[in-house]
Amino acid sequence: MGVWARLAGLVFFLVLLSGCSQQSSATDDLIHALTETHSALASSILAIELYDPQRSTQAVTDTVLGDMAKQAVDAESALEPVKVDSEQLKSDRDAALAAIQSGVAALFTSRDNFSQRGAVDTAGLESADQQVNDVLNQLRGSR
Amino acid sequence: MKRVFGLALGILTAIGGFVDIGDLVTNAVVGSRFGLSLAWAVLVGVVGICIFAQMSGRVAAVSGRATFELIRERLGPRVAVMNLGASFLINLMTLTAEIGGVALALQLVSSVNYLLWVPFAAIAVWLVIWRVKFKIMENVAGLVGLCLIGFAVGLFLLGPDWNELGRQVLQEVSTGTEKATTYWFYAVALFGAAMTPYEVFFFSSGAVEEGWTTKDLAESRANVLVGFPLGGLLSLAIAGCAAVVLLPELIGVTALSQVMLPVAMAGGKLLLAFIILGVVAATAGAALETTLSAGYTIAQFLGWPWGKFRPPAQAARFHLLMIICLLVGIGTLMTGVDPIQVTEFSVVFSAVALPLTYLPILIVANDPEYMGEHVNGRILNGAALVYLVIILAAALAAVPLMIITGAGQ
Asked: What pTM was computed for the model?
């Protein structure tokens, strides 16, 4: 057997090994989705705060808001396959889902308001971010 | 005077041409998640690309032949075809990422969805390859790409705590949620971003395009040894901006638009305009290089006439191949795949494929039949062998780390 074939076999073995060892708990998945939502909300707040004093352009702000709304939707979709096998986990999943959905709603409202009126109040985003952070801290504390 | 100007131009082009979408995205992601604690990986990558590009440029200048001609001749067609397959596919993935990068940058100027810019970006790349002279193409992209120095200006304007940034360089920093495997995944990604194989295909084929001889070796060495490290500093500035503004807010970079936020905070609209221009130039320049590299690799391997120094009619298959690759890139992006994810995969797979091109170049650079008196010296060989070990380790670790971390999630 040639060196290349052995090398390919070794890589394949390592890939299998690492694939089998990949385990992430349901709580990790919830934390990841909440972290992504927080990141999307915080980015949008920053983008609007930079646009208000004319430090950023309309196109950049518009793009950030669009990208972040999509990121939050992806985070929400990532919760669908999370399996819940206990009451505690179900309660955590419901809290995470509610927080993420409020984030998604706030992001879409901001994006639409910005594209229609060119101005947005960050209060809705901040409130949603607070809710996400509360659930995030609660989940991290319970680990 | 003309020689000094040529040298300065070459160095400036190397700086401006160093950063591409892979460097932009990976450095911003790392800065926002790990601060400057992976600066060492950029440093390792920059030294590596200096060794690699310097060897391949010298091989091309001395032998008058480019990478894939020599790989096929030295390794034989069977091994070389495997090498070609891997290198070509990764180059195609990088090409797709770069076209996506141009489109994303144009969205930042226009608010028009990037998918609508993708065909225009690809057609513009084809037109430039078709009509513009090699030297002009290389210099314009590299010089306009220098606008990315705005990231370094932005970092200074942000007025960071330099002691804190220095501390980040020396010890691991994370938001508390990052795992060790994710840290190492991004170390490999940064290494792959700095040492993308297309850079070497383009560098060595460009040497043949421009008719380098042994007289040009000193200039080529200066371009690489001065230009690339300064380009590496730009990469660190991108990470630095993200580390100062985004890391404290726990904002993880997932989109190119987020990379602009620290810039806007630092220098307002003026700096933002400079940076976006730099991003367009850097990604467009890299799209040109990867498209040409796609043509170079196959044409050199199959012995077809190649190069921009020939009129397109005399290198018809070379040009047709590039058009096909651009169409594949457009088609891939039009499926709605995220260009940033394509970029992240391309830099990781670059690390996987690196030994396939590095090893043959190292062998040829030591072969007196090809190189005569210009074979590698002892010190360079020592460093090149150390890098061979690093490259092999990165290549072997890349895919397992990608699976374990879910591509750095």
From this structure: 0.90
